[in-house]
UniProtKB/TrEMBL annotation:
CzcB-like C-terminal circularly permuted SH3-like domain: residues covered: 224-283
Protein name per UniProt: Nickel and cobalt resistance protein
Topology versus the membrane: Single-pass membrane protein
Highest taxon listed in the record's lineage: Bacteria
Disulfide bond recorded as keyword: no
Compartments, record wording: Cell inner membrane
Gene: nccB
Family matches, as PANTHER family: CATION EFFLUX SYSTEM PROTEIN CUSB (PTHR30097), SLR6042 PROTEIN (PTHR30097:SF4)
Residue ranges annotated for the CzcB-like barrel-sandwich hybrid domain, each copy included: 2-137
GO BP, one annotated term: plasma membrane copper ion transport
Domain CzcB-like alpha-helical hairpin: 38-91
Family in the record: Belongs to the membrane fusion protein (MFP) (TC 8.A.1) family.
GO cellular component, one term: plasma membrane
Length: 294
């Protein structure tokens, strides 16, 4: 959450819910008496530091001329160091609060690039110090937690390929980050953490999505293919295997289907190339060719 560094009245709201922001962008401005106090304290501290610097320079010059003793020069130097430290402290406080140039308000600034996923500030409203005003989700920080059955758990491992299906059906390439070693809940499901390969603003925090996981072959030699690769031809499941002349329909025995993948128990061998994402187009072309022959 992004908070206000001072209590006061919301003077401006520069960004809205759902908008993308960059690190350092001002989201809102809060007019505050505390801001005026910080600005005043900074000015006073800087003035004292300037005065102490001039005093030290004068005492150092007088000492070199033999007019004043070393003690007075060293005392002026110590006073200068104290004044400079106080000026630095006041400046750091003002910068941390994102004090505006006129000293009347503080800016609410996004520390990261991302998208505004929550907003609880309105123009003219009073906000308390440290009040939650915005939530910004970083583009690289969004991850998806998917549920998988216990039977598929052993076939999924961190680093594996995955795809996040957005609400419009388009896939977002992703990788498996972690897999829980146990199952829980009445559904006896484990959790797989998936993260996009590239930062994307198309994922909305809290939105429900589907995930496709690329599972490994079982130890007994069973193969897996994307579920879209399996086409039904006259009531029989088939894969389209690549040949020198194109593709041929090969009947297969399909096992379990999970996470967008289908087990192939028999019908094809490991290493054979099959149509996957566009298998339905291959089927349509074959049906068209068969109709033309008739």
């Amino acid at each position: 959450m992004i908070v206000s560094r001072a209590a006061g009245t919301v003077l401006r709201v520069q960004r809205r819910l759902g908008e993308g922001v960059r690190a350092g962008d001002v989201l809102a401005t809060v007019e505050s008496p505390e801001a005026a106090a910080m600005a005043s304290e900074r000015r006073v501290a800087q003035a004292r530091a300037d005065l102490s610097r001039r005093t030290y320079e004068r005492e150092a010059s007088l000492f070199q001329q033999g007019v004043t003793p070393r003690q007075e020069m060293e005392s002026a130097k110590a006073a200068l160091e104290v004044a400079q430290a106080e000026a630095q402290r006041a400046t750091t406080v003002a910068e941390a609060a994102h004090l505006t140039s006129d000293g009347r308000a503080v800016a609410v600034v996004s520390p990261i690039a991302g998208k505004i996923t929550a907003q609880s500030v309105t123009l003219g409203a009073y906000v308390a110090q440290q009040a939650d005003l915005f939530r910004v989700a970083g583009l690289g920080a969004v991850q998806v937690e998917a549920a998988v059955t216990a039977g598929d758990l052993g076939r999924i491992s961190p680093g594996g390929q995955a795809a996040i299906l957005l609400s419009n059906g388009s896939p977002l390439p992703a990788k498996i980050q972690a897999v829980t070693p146990t199952v829980s809940g009445s559904a006896r499901a484990a959790t797989v953490v998936v993260r996009p390969e590239q930062p994307s603003d198309r994922l909305v925090v809290g939105e429900g999505v589907q995930v496709r996981l690329r599972a490994k072959a079982n130890n007994n030699g069973e193969l897996s293919v994307p579920e879209d690769a399996v086409q039904n031809i006259d009531g029989t499941d088939a894969l389209f295997v690549r040949t020198e002349n194109g593709f041929r329909a090969q009947p297969v025995l399909v096992g379990t289907r999970s996470g967008g993948m289908a087990q192939i128990l028999s019908g094809v061998r490991a290493g054979e190339q099959v149509a996957t994402r566009n298998a339905f187009l291959v089927k349509a072309e074959m049906n068209k060719a068969a109709g033309d022959d008739e």
